[in-house]
## 1
Amino acid sequence: MTIEILMPALSPTMTEGTLAKWHTGEGEKVAPGDIIAEIETDKATMEVEAVDGGTLSKILVPEGTAEVQVNQVIAVLLVDDEDSSALDAAVANAAKAKDDRATAEVVKPETQAATTSSSARAEATQPSSTQKPSGDKRMFVSPLARRLAAKAGLNLSLIRGSGPNGRIVKADVDAAVAAPAPARAPAPTKDADFELVPHTAMRKAIARRLTESKQTVPHFYLTVDCQIDQLLETRKELNSRSDAYKISVNDMIIKMCAQALIEVPAANAAWSEEGARYFKSADIAVAVAVPGGLITPIIRGAHGKGLRTISNEMKELVGRAREGKLKPEEYEGGTFSVSNLGMFRIREFAAVINPPQACILAVGAGEKRPVVTDGALGIATVMTCTLSVDHRVVDGAVGAEYLAALRSLIESPLSLML
Amino acid sequence: MAENNYDMVIVGGGPGGYVAAIRAAQLGMKTVVVESKHLGGICLNWGCIPTKALLRCSEINHLLLNLDMFGFSADNISFDIKKIVKRSRSVAGQLSDGVKHLLKKNKVEVYDGWGRLTGKAGVVAVEKNGKIIVELKGKHVILATGARARALPGMEADGKRIWTYMEAMVPESLPASLLVVGSGAIGVEFASFYRNLGSEVTIVEVLDRVLPVEDEEISKLAAKSFEKQGMTLITSAQVKALKVGSSSVAATIESNGKSNELTFERVIMAVGIVGNVENIGLENTKIKVNRGHITVNEWCETGEPGVYAIGDVVGPPWLAHKASHEGVICVEKIAGVNDVHPLDTSNIPGCTYCQPQVASVGMTEKAAKDAGHKVRVGRFPFAGSGKAVAMGDTEGMVKTVFDAETGELLGAHMIGAEVTEMIQGYGIAKTLETTEAELLHTIFAHPTISETMHESVLNAYGRAIHY
């Protein structure tokens, strides 16, 4: 007989954790009560004891694996005196369950069009960690508690269970009923007519990722006005030379953002628990609106690419993004993001950082504004850019230095030639 | 005296104490039990277990006297009460040895002596023959000293004519006539034992019905059955005086304002239990005692930091399984185990091994109504069970009480053959918080007496098939 060792829940609310260490190697004997592994959550590290004795035949989740879902099979124990065919079957089963999950995620079209680079990485390249939306998780509720909650109009997902493994029992529902409480679903008002649109995977990913960003990343914002008359002039001239390309203002901003990152490498960064990452390449993620959400295709190494290349690449990526046909490597892993709402005549705005990247540039519309040059009032085409910055990894002075470099490039586009 | 330091010192080796000790040892605590008499306590030595051994014998006698209904005949049926008692004692002895072995296996130390709190934090003195033989220091101390029969003033047991359960368990001869004072579980079990062996049995109960903690309908059926067996039941009555003579006891029994004097060969006093709170050093602590029981909170903590109390000494229901469960909860709470919850008293089953047996869990119909529930009640008689008819055990009934609005199983009440073995079905249902729906969907095996449990639920919802 084989016994599947499952990822334990160290607390009723735990949904995933990191398998920090295996104390027992494959093929080693374990007795009930032996410490076989260490599990880490964001809160604590706990030891996992063997419940049954036998031989730890197969480790399915290696040491150091993060985001291991609770109840995922992490290893297979072979009870003594059994032949190993049972083990093969058990391992095959566990692997099959893994594949099934992977397949399910890849064929889901919404998954491919996930919102931001990192969320996409989590969902598309680590399907075995089953990043199921929490709503799909099995909830443990006693039949009586379920009925009482239904009667009281309570949303069970908002109630914390006090029973074994977080099972919601009568006492929990009674407590929620007694509480004045946010656990109560808001009573639907009669006159508010609405259509309920179920969440797509993309919508859920946007909600989760951006909530996480706004709640955990300390944002600050720097705003600068850039005169773009010269940039527009340059663009016009470049576009007049050939019909083989049509460079947009945005293409030029992508190139300039990349160039500025090379000049101020401290801004080409990402926060991680282990340390600050400073990237060598300027990979610019560009927010593109698609039906039902947005996605960020990436121009890799944009500092080393010509405007024509960037422009053609962008056109091709946007086209496929709108059809939901981007490959994961095309939208995950950028180092800096650009979001441009200029075409909607937005004057200026502040974008939400796309973790783990440290900066995102929000580009407003170019518009004619009165400007004072050398003490004289004049008219110039001005574009306002706002940089949202993760203060954990990029400080105010670095952000300002970056914006100054960017503005200088935008205002004298010929510097790109240097 | 470093070797006398423990994580856990437990005073009392009954079903509360020894279970708590084993659980503590499992959780890695260095544990010691102090027991002055028998490991296993009253339950194992002078209660639950030896009485079951006795009742088994009296049931066999009953069966032998009714062989004809099964197509048998036998002459000269007889029994030797001394052998019956001997068997009962050997059963108790065997199991007490078993507890000793279990404690040893779990590396729990045992001191034979009388444990007493000294007033020094966590220190329990162990006395033997009036001398302190050792002092044990525990990070935690659990008092599990149990309880004993309550005595009525002027009617104290003398061990000869007036018995408590102790003497009633080891009779040297069968009394021709017997008065049982009190009709709780202990009283009616002895009444059944002696009646089935042939004694003339009279039960006096101060309340208006026998087995007064049970549902009224169950009490009524039990009374009917007891009377059919030839017992005399006097309810709403009090024994005012007992006069012990050379070969009998004269009892003054008052009921409906009238006083009667009746004579019995023996009397069993079964009028309740008081906690063993004396001579255990409580006066040296901040522990409070209320009406003969130690006051504790839901985690069995007393008023003295680090000292806990479990089981009969903290109060009713005086049941071994309640003591054991409290012991486990108390120890797990101390050890910081996840998901420990206070004892849910509404889920403690109660069993009485009279004939017919009685078992229940949760609220009676009246208690449910008094608590404000709108109830749905189901009933099913054993006469409707094919298995019960085949076994010749048609006397019995299962009653279920549901909350009409939520379908919560509030209580279950059973009388009849084997009901003490079956009540756990409802106990699990209650612990898992099933509603009527899960019970209705459960497939009960046919033919079993347990089908009556299903039919009772069906009946509560107007769906009984065989009734």
## 2
Amino acid sequence: MTQGSDNPLEAYVRAALALQGYTFEDAEIAEITAQFARLEAIARTVFDWPLPFASEPAPVFRP
Amino acid sequence: MAAAVCIGTGAGVSPLIGSAADIVRQIGTGARSAASVLAETKALIHTRNSDLNCFTAMTFERAEREAAAIDALQARGVPLPPLAGVPYAVKNLFDVEGMVTLAGAKINAGNPPAAADATIVARMSRAGAVLVGALNMEELAYGFLTENHHYGTTRNPHDHTRGAGGSSGGSAAAVGAGMLPITLGSDTSGSIRVPASLCGVFGLKPTYGRLPRTGTYPFVNSFDHVGPFANSVLGLGLAYDALQGPDPADPACAQRPVEPAGVSLVLPRGIRIGILGGWFHEWADPAARRAVQLAASALGATEWALLKSAEVARAAAYIITGAEGGALHRPRLIEQYEDFGPSSRARLVAGGLIPASWVIQAQRVRQQAHGEALNLFQHFDLLMAAAAPAVAPRVGQETLLINGRSIPTKAGLGVLTQPISCIGLPVCTVPVWPGEGESPAERALPVGVQLIGAPWCEGLCLAAARTLEQAGIAEVRPPLNYAAAKFTR
């Protein structure tokens, strides 16, 4: 696995993969980065959505 | 191919197996035996499955035993259970005692066989249904096609050059092809509703938590639902009622008592039905819009409804799905990456890298979208929208073009279902035949319409579906390449 990238998304993907115990070749990292970029693009819709500060996440634990 | 032993068409092969209600009635009166229904089913499967690739395994020995047990009850004059002798099959992510649960994945092929049936498979057995096999699906339920790298593509019964949709593609195609009156599937983001739409069958995704998932292979715990497909609304209701009931083994199961819905499928007078606009109209092509229009006219629905958070709810579902699916499969992705299909493995790994803050934000969005939907149900009793943005795409087609906008097929087919499952609402999908399209082949294909209820209002969804069925707007049609006779509902 080659280290270092000028692309912040790829840099994040490489770091997160290492943190989670994955080892991949560069071609596979490029494919995973492309998939992560799609997720990031969709996630922007979620980031930008206005929410009340006190709004809670959906899952509720019921002991 | 063997000629099937069939009834009533004079063509040698029935266009569709009878409805569940017909089969139960015929066996109850002694007009037919469960063994003869099973023989017809096996012949239909033998004749048609090779074209479509619906099944990944048969369970005929078990089916013979279950059918014989029903015939023995009938011979003794004992009251028969509600699905007596009705043949069915299950998506291969349901545990079936003695079989390996594949979930469409090679990584599971070496697992030990299931020690017991999934809860809802056991409930089907208790209701007298006869299990004939396990059905193909998208690998690990991740995607809206059933173009499975390991177990092959399931094709559309109405056009074999097109896909069945997914991830429960085998379940929908087996009913659409007339092989079975009922199948079971699962729906995380649209995996019952999308293939039901593409294959022209009825499908029910109940409220999140209504039916137990115990003994099913998980994908996204936050969204996983299970439910039936059927060739009639009565059959869908019979199956749904048989599947209900609490199960403490599933922490998401709502532990509600059985609330029978299939017995009274009459739409109350004065019901308020809203047609979902905005996102749901923008992402529906002319055929899908026409299908909604036909159903709305038949139900007397004229008012538009707006779920403003539809787009962001879909995005939230996307993020949560990626994160949970990626986390679930991380150990196997590390050890067996090459054994995952090429279309899913990079997506799964990428999902597992999603930061926690994105997931938390997505869950907050989900909660807010749920609140908005509940407010909408203050004004409407039922909402409706297309179940897929277009008719079935061709096998291998990589993009859909919807009203001038391109979207990847594998994810885009769920663009109209994902916002609804994100907030767990019950939906009955009904098959409508809009007759729209650029070619005669497209004009012969169905589009499903989602009938969306408030939480726990499955009965209303089913009643609206029955109204459309009785009006002749929603129906399961025999594929054109089989005899063109109808069956009695």
## 3
Amino acid sequence: MTLLQTAASELLRDLEARRVSSRELTEAYLAQIEKHDGQVKAFLHVDREGALAQAKDIDDRRAAGKPVGKLAGLPVAIKDVLCTKGVVTTCGSKMLENFKPPYDATVIAKLKAADAVLIGKTNMDEFAMGGSTENSAFFKTRNPWDLERVPGGSSGGAAACLAASMAPLSIGTDTGGSIRQPAAFCGVTGLKPTYGRVSRYGLVAFASSLDQIGPMAASAKDTALLLDAIAGHDPLDSTSVPLDVPNYSASIDQPLAGLKLGRVKEHFGPGLDPEIEAAVNEAIRVFTGLGATVVDISLPHSKYGISTYYIIAPSEASSNLARYDGVHFGYRTDEKAMLAELEAEQKQLAAAGDERGLKNLDTSLIRMYRKSRAEGFGPEVKRRIMLGTYTLSAGYYDAYYLKALKVRRLIRGDYDKAFEQVDFIIGPTTPSPAFKLGEKTDDPLSMYLEDLYTVTANLAGIGGISIPCGQTKAGLPIGLQLQCRPFDEERLLRAGHMFQQATDWHTKRPKLG
Amino acid sequence: MTLSRADVEKVSLLARLLLSESELDTMTTQLVRIVGYVEQLGELNTDNVQPMAHALELHNVFADDVQHEHLDRAAALANAPKHDAECYRVPAVLGE
């Protein structure tokens, strides 16, 4: 049990000193998965044999004194939205249930080069659309702190496996809060890097101008370790930025002097759970105690964040998901049944003398697309495709999509102005703690409003981190969000580490049955 | 602007989705609520605001014009629901 409670950065030192082997470590995590994942259901696929073979290879190379990568021997869990060559990558969708990518995502290639042990693929909301992981086409993941509650989403499996000590490091993705919100709900640390910091090549696209891959772990220090392995420019992703990457782990222990924090007044309004408010205010006092100064700031357009996001993200999604046509890869409807149905419709229309109906009847190809997509996608994905198709359609483009792009500029402007005054923006990650399974599934808009404090960072393209800062009376974790200027992750992680040196919320783990 | 059931049906064709009668009802109710909510953006004056399509104000990124490795045909076809040795197979596109 002690291995599972040791920080990834310390495990790495133990591996390097050969006090523990990667095989022992991997076996310990596999045993934990075996024991508890029947309840938590964080993993869609556990690669027991692959992981053990990789661990053995790394142990052998290390024993022979051969060079090994910077994460050599540490298990990492992967959100099932990153392409892994030859290993099924489902995106939590029936559409991709049998999809075996012919190549690795850049982040996967980098993790392999770093000799991380890829232990398995974690559950998620279908195509990363959702905030509870209830939209997975396969099963629901449960929050290890309370199995009746959701782990958050869309990186729900990624966060839950950390909370349940089933992996020391975990990769998530964040389009509107999908790393930070589940990190908050599960009491772990999750970083959404600045847009462009990490290559998106091989990430199954949801909203390309907002999606970003990021590291999740128990602490800011371990998060830094994982970011070191995945950050950097990639010629295969022209939106990744050709900037030097700092060595995040090297500087993590250096505290920041003279920090200026901005407390966003709009993030403390009505709708914020009082226990979360109290915990976040206490966290701000911790920072003050560490020498930080805190000023009140305003992000006046933040109340438009949800509206802007739920126009832009579905618009991009409707375009990105057009590739699922039942032709090149993915699910296709039963063609014989589809053709028989179409023929029956045609006969019926002909018998009724409905010329217009006949003229408008789908061709067999169009019907094949429509039925394949209708059967392959779940309700939330359909809803967003519909919403995005509508907001991009003739006559509505200016009123919705173009309008949202303009408000996006205003939201970015708010941040630029705030960062002239402060180093980081501080506040709650979510308005409320983890909710119960099924509580919000009938009301998509109430689920969307959960993203209130997180979506604006994606719209502006800046970085953000969620770190544990307390618990409710019912024992549910509370997340503190810090947001930073573009490409200031190095200092953001140091600020998180400073906080975690002074508190112990990040060390708390749930009791599993 | 209100969204009618007929609008939703038309959008479902544009989106290449096929919705059942009950899905059309639910979808109409939900989209009316969501679109009603996002219309709050109308209260902002954005006349002189430049649209922001992307987080990074990137210019064109050029690559050297050299041949790279590419997927071989078998790998590209491997995930297709229906294919022969050379092509993806689809239902007849032209009339019989």
## 4
Amino acid sequence: MPNPKKKFSKIYDKYVEQIYRFVFLKVNSQEVAQDLVSETFLRCWGAFRNKKDIKNPRAFLYQIARNLVIDYYREKGKVVMVSADSTPLVDPREGLEEKTNKNLELERIKNCLTSLKEEYQNAIIWYYLEGLPVSEIAHLLGKNEGATRVLISRALRALKEKISEA
Amino acid sequence: MTEKEIISKIEQLRQIKPEKEWVALTKERILGTEPKVKWLGLFDYQLKPILAGALMALIVFGLFSVSQNSLPGDTLYPIKKISEKGQAIFVSKNEEPKVKLEWVNKRLEELKEVALKNETKKLPTALKETENALAEAAKGLVKSENIAQKEVVEKAKEMIVKKEEIEKTLGVEIGGKEEENLTKTLAEKLIDDLENRNLTKEQKEVLEKAEEDFENGKYQEALLKVLELSYNNE
């Protein structure tokens, strides 16, 4: 049996950025995103230690993260706030802030994306941003592949409309 | 903006990345939640109490072993005493006088060591321990039916020699009343025993002198005589 610590370490390295992006886009706060992502991986590690059979670690992580984001808003009675002057998209040390115009455009996309309904947000993030196969998205959404393709298409159209309105 | 351009912009959101330090620290923190004593994980959980018990036994055994060289006033000295008492549980009534005298000799040895090392702070405790051992030995001997055993006689002789040696070193009398009680009891019991034995004319004369010393309160002289007699009479 492979060492669970080693196995988890590989999964962490592979998916931490994806999960962070997913959570950050939803909570719009670096601090909250860090807390929720830590909790996501901690729960995943707990499952590993308990020898839970995790067939698709990425789907497992997204599922935990999704539930944590829902809990976060439920507990705090918060609504998803989208603000142009909210938390910068990336770590300021990454240097993106210096590219002001580009950043503003990305902020606009991000704001429009996060204003969509949750199902559309997830479909766009998973398909266009993270490049997940339709079959995996279908699994995550609990839909068949055909319905998922339709959903992705509708989500992109909805985003386009939001951008043109903004 | 075309759909293609939107998709391109979405892809640029991949620049959203967590801080590298945070990524490393979080991983470390999560994996650090694993039980630290990893080797225990090699065994079945049911074995852990047994291992813990074995470890505890090992520690206790180690403490008992180390404590054997301790002196009165040392931290480990009470453990040495406990181990002695523990051993005494398995001693028969017949062997009790020998064991009690052995303890007296041990206390005298310790006292000698304290004196030789000039550990003045430990001296009062060492003297007190010796007195206690003498008192306990006297108490045990009073109850004992048979003290006229070769080993008891040898231990008693050893005790007198050691005591005199330490008294010379320290320049003080050791034991006081406790020592007198023990000497008196030993002498009395050995005299009684010798009176019931077949002795030669010379031996009878020595015994009479011992009895005389005893009557005059010279218990140590009486004891020395009967010890010599008892030893030779074996």
